[in-house]
């Protein structure tokens, strides 16, 4: 299978490229022309493309699948107006350009797996959220909704579209987990805010497996909640993490202090509550590699 990937240097992209190349697939990393390198057989190879114009290098033509993982980090820095514009452009504009590029090709891929996020639901307390739940109204919800709207336009080109709504991805050397671990290593770890907010998590290993399922299974289409079946409240998440690290969890981070330090981002990323159910995956009979947080956390930290 020939696979085009945007965002190939990120946490998910790096793991996905390695898994696909290991299994003999041809991987083309879509990168800006100035970022093109000779690469190596073990990592696939670069294909120049412009997220601004949608120009796609000839080597990218004839792909069987496209995985769109592009997007600036949500958690890097305060959400100033300038930062928000970057978050939007790196997702919405890039996805629009990608779909426009695919429209110009004579031979189109069978499937586009496009990243999204459970942030589309907003903060919903104890409500159980499935792919059929309505979007929220906060910044992240609007961002994800518009992001998905650009990706779904590929259906008009005869391309099957899967919208992968990622939960919090747990990995030892990237994403949110290293930042969560640091306070515990310093002896000041604890629950965040009230601790009652729901955390919908997923291991990186499961993320890669689910993307591959979405690429290969022709019955998968539309929104898919990429989250483990057993969400936990923040206080319980904290306890599990502390136990896995053999550290105490004695110092809660007050909500007011988080808002003072991070502004709007604190409510959206740390204090929001999303109790997500992976209904689409369960209907497909997907067997999670890690469905319980305690076992998942131990496996991640031991492998690190």
Characterization of the model:
With 304 residues, the protein is α/β, with parallel strands linked by helices. The chain has a single domain, classed as NAD(P)-binding Rossmann-like Domain (Rossmann fold, 3-Layer(aba) Sandwich), CATH 3.40.50. The chain is built from 10 helices and 14 strands. Strand 4, helix 2 (81-103) and strand 5 (111-117) form a beta-alpha-beta unit. The protein is globular and about 60 Å long. The two termini are 30 Å apart. The model is unreliable at 38-42 (pLDDT under 50).
Write a brief caption for the model.
With 304 residues, this protein is α/β, with parallel strands linked by helices.
Could you list some keywords that capture this structure?
304 residues; alpha/beta; Rossmann fold; 7-stranded parallel β-sheet; 3-stranded mixed β-sheet; globular
CATH class: Alpha Beta
Helix content: 25-40%
Largest sheet: 7 strands, parallel
* Assembly state of the chains shown: single chain
Number of helices: 10
Number of strands: 14
The structural domain count equals 1
Name of the CATH superfamily: NAD(P)-binding Rossmann-like Domain
Class inferred from helices and paired strands: alpha/beta
Shape: globular
From the 3D structure, determine the CATH topology: Rossmann fold
The fraction of residues assigned to DSSP E strands is 15-25%
Radius of gyration: 19 Å
Low-confidence stretches: 38-42
Name the average pLDDT: 90
String of helices and strands: EHEEEHEEHEEEHEEHEEHHHEHH
Cross-sheet strand order for the largest sheet: 3-2-1-4-5-7-12
End-to-end gap: 30 Å
Architecture, according to CATH?
3-Layer(aba) Sandwich
């Amino acid at each position: 299978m020939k696979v085009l990937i945007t965002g190939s240097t990120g946490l998910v992209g790096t793991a996905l490229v390695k898994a696909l190349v290991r299994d003999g697939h041809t991987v083309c990393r879509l990168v800006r022309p100035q970022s093109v390198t000779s690469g190596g057989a073990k990592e696939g190879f670069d294909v120049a493309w412009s997220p601004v114009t949608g120009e796609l290098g000839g080597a990218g033509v004839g792909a069987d699948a496209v995985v769109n993982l592009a997007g600036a980090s949500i958690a890097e820095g305060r959400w100033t107006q300038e930062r928000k514009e970057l978050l939007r452009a790196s997702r919405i504009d890039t996805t629009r350009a990608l779909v426009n590029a695919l429209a110009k090709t004579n031979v189109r891929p069978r499937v586009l797996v496009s990243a999204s996020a459970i942030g589309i639901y907003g903060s919903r307390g104890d409500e159980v959220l499935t792919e059929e739940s309505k979007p929220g109204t906060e910044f992240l919800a609007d961002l994800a909704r518009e992001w998905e709207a650009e990706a779904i336009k590929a259906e008009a080109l005869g391309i099957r579209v899967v919208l992968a709504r990622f939960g919090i991805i747990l990995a030892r050397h990237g994403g949110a987990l290293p930042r969560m671990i640091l306070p515990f290593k310093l002896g000041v770890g604890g629950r965040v805010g009230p601790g009652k907010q729901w955390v919908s998590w997923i291991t990186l290993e499961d993320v890669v497996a689910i993307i591959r399922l979405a690429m290969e299974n022709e019955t998968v289409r539309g929104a898919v909640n990429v989250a483990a079946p057993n969400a936990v409240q923040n206080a319980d998440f904290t306890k599990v993490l502390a136990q896995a690290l053999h550290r105490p969890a004695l110092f809660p981070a007050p909500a007011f202090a988080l808002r003072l330090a991070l502004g709007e981002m604190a409510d959206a990323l740390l204090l929001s509550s999303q109790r997500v159910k992976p209904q689409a995956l369960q209907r497909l009979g997907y067997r999670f590699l890690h469905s319980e947080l305690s076992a998942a956390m131990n496996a991640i930290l031991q492998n690190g």
